[in-house]
Fold these 2 entries.
Entry 1:
Amino acid sequence: MATLTYQAPTSLQDAVRILAGAGGVAKVLAGGTDLLVQLRSGRVKPDLIVDTKKIPGLIGIREVEGGFVIGAATPGAVIGEHEALGKAWPGVVEAANLIGSTQVQGRASLAGNLCNASPAADSVPALIAAKATCVIVGSKGQREAPVESIVIGPGRTSLARDEIITEFHLPKRPPRSADAYLRFIPRTEMDIAVVGAGINVTLDAGGVCRDARVALGAVAPTPLLVPEAAAALIGHKLDQATLDALDAAARKACKPIDDKRGTIEYRIKVAGVLARRAAAIAFERAGAHR
Amino acid sequence: MSRTHVSAVINGEPTDFLCEPQQTLLDVLRDELNLTGSKEGCGSGDCGACSVILDGRLVCSCLMLGVEAEGHTIQTIEGLATGSTLHPVQQKFLEHAALQCGFCTPGLLVATKALLDRNPNPTETEARYWLAGNLCRCTGYDKVIRAVMDAAAVMRGEKSA
């Protein structure tokens, strides 16, 4: 093994400078629950690991102007314990908390889940449905990008080699808004999504959907934002015709693979079913039946 | 190979060690500090045999680099008993025979302690989900869960040890 260097900078400027100056393969470390597995298997052989957890702001959650800022390396367990966040964004929180075991939740982060760039990442469809953005810092400065622009293929992101995601922004919620995330796995814990569906809605006082975002996981090379599925919801109550239109739009967006977790046909079918079920939860949370 | 100096508090003792950057915390505990109670099952965070408590949170020591321990507080299975007095969780695992080969046991004990520190009165369902990342090929989990629930009752003072 070539010599591996570990650095834990205490400022963003240092982190970016170290990454920009790195000669060989450099990896950014947050919780490490994917990176350490890849190190051990030999799938990645970095010359440099830059640990982001000592950079101020990378761990923690704060409310800003009615929205939320989640530090990129904040562990899932911390996200799950934040009462106000769970109330405003139950779908994002339930998705983040589905990642791995209690032990994994003690370390696993949103930035890690996103930048690992698995098509089946649980938190990513929920973040996309939430219209979350991430703040990215690199040697050319700071930029903000929608979460759906980060993953460009299995294991590949749009980040430059000297860029680090520092935080996620969740917008302020209009009244009667809620989200939900469901994934299908053949058991109840400790598995990887066959399909995941995140749905975020805003209703009017009559229970009619006024705004919606729908995102699907594990049915394409990247997590998908599906505007056609959102369009099936907007302007409608969640009646049978709306559910059928949502189901059809979700299925139509799928471009899955056959693997040991599910066939193409099965994944497409389940995507429609999960979209319907997640929509029912999101509508109910937003007060459709009150 | 350059070795990094790391300072951490392990089982209440300020501890310094040298490690290579690719060594996991589990490697450090077992190979550098001779704390071999934490076991390596899968090495990929699936089995929980290497569970330790980091700053009050349950983690897999195989999913963390030794160098990441700098400045942190770690509790391992070796810190569970007080001298020769077993922790109630250990006592109840023994009484309920909640182990056979014993390889998963340190991880289950540490994970159970972390659960009961946080939630002294878990439901059986909560206990089963909390421990879903601790695999046991021997017991079928039934005796494990009985021991956990019994230990919880003892620690709440509802029954004597």
Note: Chain A has eleven helices and 14 strands.
Entry 2:
Amino acid sequence: MVNQARVVLVACGGGIASSHVVKNRIKDRLEAYGIENVIIKAIPYLKAQILSREAVLYVNLSPNDGINYACPVMSGIPFLTGFGIEAAMEELKAHLEHHPPKA
Amino acid sequence: MEMLTNLIQYMLDLGAPIVLPIIMILIGLLFGVGFRKAFSAGLLLGVAFAGMNVVLSFLFTSIGPASSAFVEHTGLQLTAIDIGWAPVAAIAWGWPYAFLMFPLQIGINIAMLALNWTSTLNVDMWNVWAKVLTGLIVATISNSVVIAFVFCAIEIIIELKQADWSVYLMEDNTGIPGVALPHSLFFEWIIFLPLNRLMDKIPFIANNSFEPEALREKIGIFAENHVSGFLIGVLIAIFAGYDLKGILTLGIEAGTALTLFPMVATLFITALLPIADGAKEFLESRFPGRTFYIGLDWPFAAGLASIWVAAILNVPVLILWSIILPGNIVLPFGGIVALCSTIPAALVTHDDVLRTTLMTWIAQPLWIYAGTWFAEPITQLARQVGAVEIPADVQYISWVSMEAPSMRMSFAAIGDLIGNGHISPVLLVAVVTTVLFFWSGKMLREENHKSAVKLGKIETSD
């Protein structure tokens, strides 16, 4: 049985610079915590709403944008500023625990 | 000095795909990331550069002949292909002095924080490449690397000051406290702020506001790279006199190039991450326990729908301007979604889509002329460092929607004067820009203060 990976979205303007920075920072920490079965996708901002239907979490780099997403949302700003990353990771882990990988 | 010139020439001869990894590995080791990580990052940087050349090559073989046919068929001298930010960034990193911008930015930031001349800690290391671009443009036009570095230093200082002067304006727009925008793309607040005040006086504009969110949903698809690329490719092919098959083929090839460019750019990001992280940690460790404004890259403001709506509504206008502006040589393509215009406009107008769109329409010529003037330095460097042959039927490459056109044009014109004794008509731009920087600067601080009051913060400085 393959564990189905959970999709976490990160989006920025073009889906390139900032979202990749955040994606890598999250990935490194998930590896350090030994959390598996997570796919982090860096996407262009305009795609976030549509792709949120298939994700378990959207790490929003422009929070307060007033858009309705299909999945839970958290602010990704701490991953950019470097301040408050630990708290943000706790929030992220909590979201992942809510959605354990389907066996 | 002789040794340095020889070293630079040797580096240029080896080519960026080889030199960049070596520099990267050395810096990685310097930052203590360990050999494996440094080697991987370094290699990835070389791969990124070579990869960008692959896509550029593909673009040149498809758009190159089309753009010459376009010029012949229409008589319009649009001989500089606008390739957009991603390949321009890659070319910038190929400049021999590129990596020196990291210590320059970090050093100035630390010095200014220590002297209390700024409250902003700029952790956006990716956009160091914007300073590299300024540097290579000014160095080429003024014939002096020293002059280029002086202006890059000035740019860094301006960025930190504009961040200080607008942090509450940012929070007012995005709801995120303590985050500032040093990014040079914001710089055209110097013209958008006065324009905004002017628009306050025009009843139709002042009394009408439109909800950008609904519009964003409807037309957002046009901002997607494969769609905008396809449409522009088709347009160019039509005016180049192609037949139906040629038109559709160019459309798809253009869409391909614009989609692949950013994908390759992600390789750059990943490769530069060790430097970015190391630099950030270094900066933050210097001032423990102190609160600053954190300078970030622009996407934290991407939620402002006007940015996207105005950029799309601007596409036909941008094309029109490039056709009618006398002396323009840039054929809009990669930079057709002019975010570097709509972002500062949207921030200054608080996401007012009508004003943002109008301001963008009015001010586009500034960006287009910057693209025209800087086509030569960009093309020259690309020819020097790239592994790709820019084919004979492509005269120039450029970027039609770059950051801070007025700042860059001013630096280049003044640099031209100091370095070559040449008095260029663009010096007028420099004069106006300098005046506006101080005049609009006061307005920026006023708007910032208004935002601070609105947010319930008490301003104790400035």
Note: The domain at 6-98 of chain A is CATH 3.40.50.2300 (Rossmann fold).
